[in-house]
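QA checklist item 7 of 12: single-chain prediction sanity check.
[x] sequence parsed
[x] length recorded as 173
[x] structure emitted
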Amino acid sequence: MRRRPRRAALASLVMAALMTATATACAHPLQDLGPLPPRFSGPPLPADTVVSEMTSVLAAEGVTVEREPSNVLGKCFERLSGRHAPDTVDAALRAAFARARSEHGWQPGPDLGSETLTLRKGNWTVMAGFPGRPAQGLQAPVVMSLMCLDGDDSSSNSPAPSAPALTPAPASS
């Protein structure tokens, strides 16, 4: 009967040694390499600048949009909406996005499929989808979403209030 506790103790010792060796071998790849590089280069763009650029390129193509109030506190999100003639809305959106690339330095954004246009500049991504066919006699809706990557500094809205800083209590002797 004494062999069983000795074997259990020996097995536990071997398992502990294996766990230590494994932890030591894996420790090098898990070292802290510091902060990640920023996801965009250059200074963050203000929301007002981005909205102004997008509104002007759409207006140049005959699409009138209005800035909708953003109700998301602490988030960098803007939305432009309007209406345009259904026969020319797709061509007008394509031309506006081409104008944004050529006149304002916007770059192609992530590919979200053939029904969505995207652009990227600094910390902002702009998306607009092609509207479906509206009912006879109605204009096609135009909706453009503008989203910021790291945005509390770039939003025109006031950021959400931050939590108060906690200070440690003085140590008593």
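[x] summary fact logged: The helical segments are 3-27, 47-60, 89-104.
[ ] second reviewer sign-off
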